[in-house]
Design a protein that fits this description.
686 residues; alpha+beta; D-Maltodextrin-Binding Protein, domain 2; Dipeptide-binding Protein, domain 1; 4 domains; five-stranded mixed β-sheet; four-stranded mixed β-sheet; 24 strands; 20% strand; globular
């Protein structure tokens, strides 16, 4: 595992070694190495760990490794083997809001419509018979009513038959469940017109948002029933007619895009009730409100209509899918025109949890995995072994002129629609174990440490963006100056941003907390998910920069298993979290809403007064229909973001994709995540 410490490998060294591996003889190289190092010193009789950034000139001799014998094809062309870090938070499609679980859900379950192969704007039917339009009568002239004809003859893996009431139940359950850590805010906005992200917005001005116990104790039976009836009137099934109708609160251009995602995956109502889920009665929905992943009856199990079924999931080890031989698609109903149909070609998909990059890399080299997650800083090791380079947009492939016999295939031109950033918590929850003593005594921080804007500005100016870009993103990153990504409507290329400036950082710290920090010091932990070395390095850069200013500024970088990390961040227990965002739909609202008033803003406990300022602009931006008007609103929001520094925004980068050369059928669509195993096949070894 990559660590920027004296005891671990450094990125510049990895680059030299990787290049030397393809040479015939050992070669000496002189390199300039910038790294973060940690040393232990003794001060007043106590050992103290000090971290700093150094630059050195070194001569490195790389010794070629022995050739690895790799098969020219898959030993078993019916089995896909994948190695990565992290695993699902939950398999409940109404709750899951992360990519590990989403990847499983999108291969096991299906929504009403899906994107048309590589098109980021066009849709084709899935569990609906056709995509509704104004012309075919599926969408009303005012854009507020969508009617879907539901496909007949489709069976769930557990044996149930798909019917319109299953579709209505799926969306009603999701909205009423309305967990604050889930994706339902994306549906609440268009369907009910709620901007708080919670179905209880209409009960006593949202006083019980996310609080089931409070809702059960404080809401009247009439209020509870009215909320449920409102949801049911917005989503109406007609089993006899074979239709489901959505009555939206307002026209919503990206509605099809919104319901095509994993949270639009259709459940079997009867099966869900058998597992202990909501019974569909408006007198009981509150008992399933805001359950959290740990309490959902569907978290460890899944039943869909898709091409794969869950065979088993052993947390921390592996998750295995098997092909559903009764899958409904035929030659007349391919996934897209010219796309796959019938049972899946890959009969087994094995996802193994392997945090350590060295192990994953060795498995790929030995031909024991078709695909592995490759973090940006690890590309220097795998690139010399690439034999074929493909354009992800066109699918065209060319031999790598530097190593045409290389064993891997690399897909490039995959525009980045995700980003990793730094999220300080304004008010850490009581009971956090990540704030040291919890006091400003040199051995911890108070819970509201980052409510002082000077400390947030210190994070922004102590981060070495160029070092991160060059050593981790390999110089391919693009600075962003706010939540919205570069190239999207609303991104202001002239917007202000904080740059790396250690002197300014030192001054901000000196001004924070009444000027006592230089003498008192502080100690806290920056958390990341174990195995994500990119996020680990971000924490270590901050650790080194703060320690270089003053050894009393103690930051510890802490790796946590993905479910533990998510739970701690959701509970607002992490003083600083390094996390990322993968857009749900390609629209600026899907960046500003979660960052400022939704997913991340809520986890950071951004004060209500500040969040209200963000909310006014966020809501205005999504409701404006004129692109020029929207752009100016988002420009104003970026200026407010700069003034208030709620997060430290880093860099956007294209994301190459690596596989064995015997993998067929890969495609890329802007905004997609995960793998579409149904589209893949493997060439067998001869």
């Amino acid at each position: 595992m990559l660590r920027f410490k004296k005891s671990g490998p450094i990125l510049a060294l990895l680059l030299v070694v990787a290049l030397a591996l393809v040479a015939c003889q050992p070669q000496a190289q002189v390199v300039e190495v910038t790294r973060v190092v940690t040393e232990t010193i003794v001060e007043e009789g106590q050992p103290i760990e000090v971290t700093r950034v150094v630059t050195e000139v070194q001569e490195v001799v790389a010794t070629p490794e022995p050739d690895v014998q790799v098969p020219a094809g898959a030993a078993d062309p019916t089995t896909w083997r994948e190695v990565s870090f992290g695993e699902p938070d939950t398999l409940d499609p109404a709750l899951d809001y992360e990519t590990s679980g989403g990847n499983v859900i999108q291969n096991v379950m299906e929504p009403l419509v899906i994107y048309d192969h590589v098109s980021p704007t066009d849709f084709v039917p899935a569990l609906a018979v056709e995509v509704p339009t104004v012309d075919n009568g599926g969408i009303s002239e005012d854009g507020q009513t969508y009617t879907f004809n539901i496909r007949e003859g489709v069976t769930f893996h557990a044996g149930g038959t798909l019917e319109p009431h299953d579709v209505a139940y799926t969306f009603q359950r999701g909205l009423l469940q309305s967990d604050p850590n889930g994706p339902q805010w994306l549906l609440l906005e268009p369907i009910l017109g709620y901007t708080s992200g919670d179905v209880t917005e209409g009960i006593q001005e949202g006083a019980f948002a996310g609080d089931r116990d409070g809702l059960l104790a404080g809401a009247t039976a009439e209020e509870l029933a009215a909320t449920c009836e409102l949801v049911k009137s917005a989503i109406v099934a007609d089993d006899e007619a074979g239709t489901v109708t959505f009555n939206l609160a307002l026209p919503w251009g990206p509605f099809l895009a919104t319901i095509s995602a994993t949270w639009g995956s259709i459940l079997d109502q009867e099966w869900t009730v058998e597992q202990g889920g909501w019974d569909g009665d408006c007198a009981t929905w509150q008992n399933w409100y805001a359950p959290g992943a740990e309490n959902s009856e569907l978290s460890p199990i899944i039943n869909g209509t898709g091409p794969y079924m869950l065979d088993h999931w052993t947390p921390g080890e592996e998750l295995v899918l098997t092909a559903y031989e009764g899958y409904w698609r035929t030659e007349e109903t391919p996934k897209w025109e010219g796309g796959p149909y019938g049972p899946a070609a890959l009969k087994t998909v094995i996802y193994s949890v392997v945090d350590e990059w060295g192990t994953r890399f060795s498995m790929m080299q030995a031909g024991d995995a078709e695909y592995s997650t490759v973090n940006p800083e690890q590309e220097v090791q795998i690139d010399p072994l690439v034999g074929e380079i493909c354009d992800a947009q066109t699918g065209e492939c060319q031999p790598n002129p530097e190593n045409p016999e290389g064993i891997f295939r690399k897909y490039v031109n995959r525009p980045g629609v995700n980003r990793t950033d730094i999220f300080p918590t304004f008010f850490v929850a009581d009971g956090s174990s990540y704030v040291g003593s919890g006091q400003l005594d040199g051995n911890g921080i108070p819970l509201d440490f980052f409510n002082d804007i000077n400390m947030r500005k210190a994070l922004a100016t102590c981060f070495n963006y160029d070092l991160y870009n060059q050593e981790v993103l390999l110089g391919q990153g693009v600075r962003n100056n706010g939540p919205i990504i570069s190239g999207m409507l609303g991104y202001n290329p002239d917007g202000q941003t904080y740059d790396y400036d250690p002197e300014a950082c030192d001054a901000y710290i000196a001004e924070a907390w009444g000027g006592q920090l230089p003498e008192t010091g502080f100690r806290f932990q920056i958390a990341f998910n174990t195995g994500n070395t990119t996020r680990q390095t971000i924490g270590e850069i901050l650790q080194g920069e703060f320690g270089a200013l003053n050894p009393l500024y103690q930051i510890e970088t802490l790796g946590l298993p993905w479910p533990t990390f998510l739970a701690a961040q959701r509970a607002s227990q992490l003083p600083v979290a390094v996390n990322g965002w993968q857009e749900d739909i390609h629209d600026p609202h899907n960046w500003v809403q979660p960052y400022l008033i939704g997913t991340y803003g809520a986890r950071q406990n951004i004060p209500a007064e500040l969040m209200d300022q963000y909310r006014e602009l966020v809501n205005a931006g999504v409701l404006a229909s004129d692109p020029a008007e929207r752009e100016q609103i988002y420009f104003d929001l970026q200026a407010l973001f700069y003034d208030t520094v709620p997060q430290v925004i880093l860099l956007q980068r294209d994301a190459p994709w690596y596989t064995q050369r015997w993998v067929n059928g890969y495609y890329y669509r802007v905004g997609m995540f995960g793998r579409d195993y149904y589209a893949y096949s493997l060439t067998a070894a001869e």
